[in-house]
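Standup notes
- DV: blocked on the single-chain target, sequence here:
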Amino acid sequence: MPGDPPAPPEEQEPLDQATCLSLLSSVDIGRIAWADDSGEVVVLPVNFTVDGDSVIVRTAAGAKLDAVRAGRPISFEADDVEPALRSGWSVLVTGPADVVDDTGRDGLAERLPAPWDRSPKPYLIRLHAHRITGHRLPLRAGGVTVERPD
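- DV (later): unblocked, structure below
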């Protein structure tokens, strides 16, 4: 309304590494990103799991696997939001990745969530977290209106 003071900006709460890893473990879908040969950034949704401070992704042959084998820097992001409450969190993991041999790894592949795309994905990619950052938009009092029918 005219004359009302401006609302203070939303403050993002930075998250420590342990909290970031815990939040990542609470969701199954994230996005993996890299720059291709032309410099164009490619971002694709993936199912994943957290193993220590690494992110594990199952994939088929193709662009993701080619990027890892070429030694391209990889980024991974996952989040969870509640639009009605204007709250949520986001975590970004960056670092090098490699193709994992699951032989003798205590069933690492079996710990991955089932991919939504059921095509064969025989390769595992491990993103080694050189940097993990995250932030949360905390739930704030007010801003929600409850209406009850008469």
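- Follow-up: The mean pLDDT is 86.
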